[in-house]
Structures are given as C-alpha cells and as structure tokens.
Give the backbone structure.
Amino acid sequence: MTTSRDIGPKNPAQQVAEAAVDFVDERSGVKTGARWFLFRNIPAGTSWFQTLGFTAMVVFGMQAITGIILAMYYVPDTQGGAYASIQRITEEVTWGWMVRGMHKWGASVMIIIVFLHMARVFIWGAYKYPRELTWITGAFLLLMTMFMGLTGYLLVWDQKAYWATVVAVNIFASAPVLGPYIGDILRAGPEFGPATLTRFYSIHMLVIPAGIATFIGLHLYFIMRLGISEPPWSKRRLRIERDEEDARRAAVREHAKALPGAVAYPATWSAGAKDGTR
Amino acid sequence: MKQADKRAYDKDYAQAKKTGKPFFPYAIFKDTVIASLTVIGIMILAIVVRVEVGEPVNPATTDFVPRPEWYFYFAFELLKIFKNQDALTPVIMATFMVPNILILLLIVWPFIDRGPERRIWKRPFALGMTVIVTSMLCYLTWMGANSPSGVSSQGLPVSGLDEEATKGMAVYMANGCGSCHMVAGVGAPGPGPDLSSEGSKGWDNAKMIAWFKAPKPPMPSYASLPPAELEALATFVNGLGTTYK
Ligand code: HEM
C-alpha cells in the first residue's frame, strides 16, 4: 500500500488540515504545549492508584453533563412544580430515568472516588513537600463535593429530602456567632420556603460547580507544575534503599574490624537483618 | 522538612523523572481504563437500581423520616452520640466542634506531618490516623444505615392515657417524633433524647408548646401544627413517665 507521502503531492485535505494546525500553533503554541503535556516524563513506577484523581475529574464532568440535561426539564417551584418535573423526568422524558439515575449514582460514586483518592494521597505521603498546596486545594474540593450532595438532595422536593435538609440547615444555623447568618443565607430568609428551593438550586448548579471547576484548575496546575509523585516503594526507591542499607552495613563492619568488641551488638544485629532472622 | 531534606527530595524526584516514562501513553492508558470502568459502573447502577420518586413535600404534615444521603450518615450518628443535652456531651460537640476540628485537621494536615519519610509503615502516627478515621467513618455509616427509621403505626407501649393524651399520642405518631426520639423502648435512639420520663421535668403545657414552636436545633420547629394538636401533644409529652407509663 502506498500513502500520499510516498508519491506525488499531499492529499489536499491533509494539506489544509496541516496548514490550519500550523496557523493555530503559530499564534497559540498549542502544539508545543500539547507535546510538552503528553510526552513529559513521569516516574516509571506510577501506579494504578494514581488514576483515582483523573477518575474523580471524569465523574465530575459526567455530573456536569447529566446535570445540564436535568436542568433543561427541572422546574424549581415549591407549589408542586419541582415534584411534578422530577416525576416527568423519571416517567415520561425519553431516557430521563437514565440521566437522573446516572446523576444520582454519580454523586455517590464521586464521593467514594474522591475519598479513595484522598486516602491514596494520604497513605503515600504525597501531600508532603512540595505538594502541600495541592492537598489544600484538594481538601476544598472534598468539602465542595459533599456540599453538592447536600444541596442537590433538596431539589427533588420529596418528604425525605425536605426534612433531612431542614435538619441539616438547622445544624448550620446552630453554630455560634456566624450560624444564624449562614442559616439565613441558606434558607434565603428566616423560614424554609419557595425562596429556599431557588436558592439551593442556584447554589447547586452555579455557585459550587464554578468553585469546583476553579479548584480543579488550581489542583491541576499544581500537579502539572510539580509532577506526579513517585510511589514511595517504587522499584527505583527500593533499590536505592537497599544500596544505602548495604553501604551502612559495610561501614559498621569496617568499624567493628577496627575496634573489636566495641560495636559487636550492631554488627550481629545487622547480620541478622540481612538473612531475615531479625 | 529541613532545607537539606527538601533539596534531597528535589534531586531524587528529578532522578525519578529522568529515568521515567512519558505521560502518554503510560499514565493516560491507566487513567482511561479506570475512568471508563467507573462510568460504565455508574450506568449499570442507574439501569439496575432505578431512581424513585418519593412522597411529595408537605410542610404541614411533618410525618417524616429525616434521613440524609448515606454519605452524611456519619454526621447524623454523631448527633445521636451527643444527644444528651448535658455538660459532658452537649449537642454542640456533634453539630459544631467535632466537624470543624475534622475540617481544620484536614486542611492543615500537610503542616502537621512534615517529616521527609513517605513510607507508611515508617509513619506510625499517620497509619494510626488512617485506620482510626476510616474505621470510625465506616462504623458510623453502618450504624446510620441500620438505624430504625421510625415508629410502627401500632402506637406506643404507654398505658393510662386519657382522651386528650390519646389525641396527643396520635399527633406524636403522625408527625414522626419517633424517628428522632424513643418512648418506652419504641422509636429511634436519637438524635433526640429518650422521652420515656419527660414528665418528670415538671414543665407546664405552655413551656412545652413554646419548645415545640422554637426548639433547639437540630430539632425542627413545629409551629405549623394547629394549636389544639400542640396542646394535646404537650399534655401527652408532659405526662410521660409520670401519669402515663
Ligand atoms: C473533585 C475532587 C478531586 C479531583 C478532580 C482531583 C484530581 C486530581 C488529579 C487528576 C490528580 C493527579 C494524580 C492522581 O490522579 O492521583 C490529583 C493529585 C493530587 N490530589 Fe487530587 N483531586 C480531587 C480531590 C483531592 C482531595 C480531596 C485531596 C486531599 C485532600 C487531593 C489531593 C491531591 C494531591 C496532594 C495530589 C498530588 C499527588 C501526587 O502528586 O502524587 N485531591 N488530584
């Protein structure tokens, strides 16, 4: 088989495409940027546990898409409109039950994935120098993800959600000093009512998503700038530690030879360590 | 971390990168596999466990079970632990102090654990925290998932009720008081305190009704109930453990 590269001039479509990419690259540097992003090196031992952050991001994207579709049908009206629109999405709209189901399950799965991601970062000590700020932006992401769950729960406007949210808002409102103000802000007034639903709706679909998007941006900036951490027990690290241990033991042995008796205990201790009898 | 440790880390990490692999395709491949499996899993869940539409909201009948989503069960269970309004276990521990201490710890953690060691088996404190926090969260969530969600419609095992108190008990049942309070062993063990001997406090009905209308959080207000029902409910609750046993 021959390609256009082997004989004659290039396929005109390809010529146009290449010219377009070059035009954009000359002005924006995307090609260079993408090449840097894709082909920069990461530590060789990078593990499957390091996929959880990306997965959280993908699930957030899925929540955004299903959420936008739900918003096309949802009506934030306490006089039965909200409830009826949820009913319509679930029972009438084509694939509506699927979109709502994915959004609802997506919320639970996102919490689990974010928690597991955090656990992996914690266990690996990946928040240590120089990644402290990556951790802090992540902590805010966890809090905002949970707050998404809280505000979204009310929107279906059924008994269970309504009363659970009344109790939750009461808890916020009972905090000392700022509590009453926070309660008023969440409820959009002193009482739970129609204004509360529209307030939760806009917090759920505008305020927090904007916050999460911003913090994911910051989080990713830090990750790209600092590089993804190496597993603390990567093959490379273990080899270095073994070499260091060997060197230390050799030094102890040298020392023991020079001063017989004085360091007999450490010498036998490290000999035991070598064949695993320690 | 000391300056020397930082420089040592920078050097070691640069070395790891130099002997590393390109982001594409190695990391991208793994990322795509796990993210795709997760999204497929969510779709399967959505198909197998269909979403439901619950009872419509009715702020007048407070016949409710205040159950949050499962990922807040731990906070809800915390309320039950600190439900006694006494000096040792005040509710404010569960509603304010414990959550805020946890949030603060979460945010400042990198400044608490600053040593250069990253292997978990050489960080006993961090390992202990992982085990304790994870098992606490799992335990509380499990407790929340298994907690009784209300009172059966049969009524409460309380005798000696007069006409007014019978009405009061009906109001108690209809408004889901039992999903937070226990009377004579029936109902949820929290977040509210056990009301079995509430009468021994010696409150009069006016004081009790004032409480129903403006209770201490997290208990919701019952100001929307008709005055006659509030009166009956107050009579019933004020006699618990004394007149009605
Ligand atoms: C919406 C939530 C979150 C998203 C979308 C997200 C995204 C990511 C991504 C894509 C990475 C790259 C490496 C990996 O996948 O493991 C990462 C790394 C990291 N994340 Fe997150 N994250 C989230 C929440 C959190 C939370 C809750 C924390 C901790 C409190 C956190 C702390 C970190 C740290 C310290 C790193 C750097 C780890 C390393 O270099 O090994 N993140 N995050």
